[in-house]
Amino acid sequence: MVARDASVLRNMKMSDSNMLGWAKDLFPIARSLTGNGVRQTFDYLKGINPEVITQSFETGTHVFDWTIPREWNIEDAYIEHVATGVRYAEFKRNNLHILGYSLPIDRHMDKAELLPHIYTQEDQPDLIPYVTSYYKDRWGFCMAHDDKQTLPDGEYRAVVKSALTDGELIVGDAKVQGQRDDEIMFSSYICHPSMANNELSGPVLSMALLKYVKDHYPKPRCSYRFILVPETIGSIAYMSRHLPEMQDRVVCGFNLSCVGDERAYSHVESRYANTLADKALCAALIGLDNVRTYSFLQRGSDERQYGAPGIDMPLCGFCRSKYGEYPEYHTDADNFNVVTQAGLDGAFEVMRSVIDAFEIGLYPKVRIKGEPQLGKRGLYPTISQKGSYSSIRTRMDFLAYADGSNTLFDIATLIGAPLSMVLDEARIMLEHDLISCDSNKNAL
């Protein structure tokens, strides 16, 4: 029997979801560490995957070395030039115009008093920066530097209709129980306002991956945990309740951040770059264009918390263009000119291949002694001629290392083949009963 085309053998190539549409729906919401924007976002995500469950931490609760802050909500903000009535830095035009967690204010002042409270990005003078003051009380606005420079002289009225009250910080997760308790973990964050790549790409990719597991593996081998939290304090709060369980069950994890553009694929290594997640991501990125690797010393997102001493989750970071490395980062230019469906689908394909590897069975082992007779199975050329074997080189190399001691990730790295191709070969070999695949936890 001739081997079927690889595209037929894959369960699904693309996400079968509208990640870009989800991101556009969520884009206008004014999110922060806490508040109604977070609630609205979780309500939307529960509509995609009802398995998402939220839990809360009251203001003042101690979570490891941190304390849950007051809840912040904002209704409106603007700067008004009194003489002309012209308004600047209007929150309702762009929610990046407000300093995150700004104190409320409604006060008249001259220009000299106002200017220190307007934050700009001088090296990108035409963009509105994203600036926060979560843990120190301040009031303020954000503007393009060029616009700040043209503010007229005179008296101004500064208005911030916000409220800081005792409330709650909300985190969420969704779990899929598999045949084994071993968990594959995906984490992303919900706390940034209208930025497409830095905020929304991670949560929508998580939701697409959750749908993929549910739709294509109704009885999965492994268990899965999808975490959505406000960055830093959210992951700390979540672990303050779930750490023993996570340390017992999680065997491989990924922090998903900035996964929506088309420019690069980035691996932010774990502390010692030696986890199963590091191996998985390295294998999944083989053959892709513009792959970049960053050490743990270049971390910046929640891989800091998951990789901290005493936590030591087997997790690494995955991005397309890494946070802080693309020019639109933390500005109003981080929009849907940056994030595309193709970019999101590329990220989905990387993570999908990792999920498929665990579900196929991580440790392939040839079932017969010696090299299999592939020709009689339609898996090897029956005409011997120079050059006729190049098309099945990956197949032969896969079998050479399928001895039960190497993971699918190891094999991809050893033979220099994209993980997706290795998975195709594993499926073909399983179809012909030439290998078995084990997911032995002790081996993990």
Compact summary:
By secondary structure, the protein is an alpha/beta fold.
Could you characterize what this model shows?
Helix 10 packs across helix 13 (419-431) and helix 12 (408-415) crosses helix 13 (419-431). Residues 1-14 have low confidence and may be disordered. The chain has helices at 6-9, 19-26, 36-48, 111-114, 145-149, 196-216, 233-249, 276-284, 303-306, 341-360, 393-401, 408-415, 419-431, and strands spanning 53-58, 62-63, 66-67, 71-81, 87-88, 105-110, 118-119, 141-142, 155-165, 168-176, 183-189, 223-229, 250-256, 265-268, 291-294, 315-319, 363-366, 435-438. The chain is 30% helix and 21% strand. It has 3 domains: 12-68 and 168-359, 3-Layer(aba) Sandwich (Aminopeptidase); 71-165, Domain of unknown function DUF2172 (Glucose Oxidase, domain 1); 362-438, Orthogonal Bundle (Arc Repressor Mutant, subunit A), CATH 1.10.10. It has 444 residues and is of the alpha/beta class. The strands form 5 sheets. The chain has an 8-stranded mixed beta sheet with strand order 1-10-12-11-13-16-14-15, with helices on both faces. It has a 4-stranded antiparallel beta sheet with strand order 5-4-9-6. The chain is elongated.
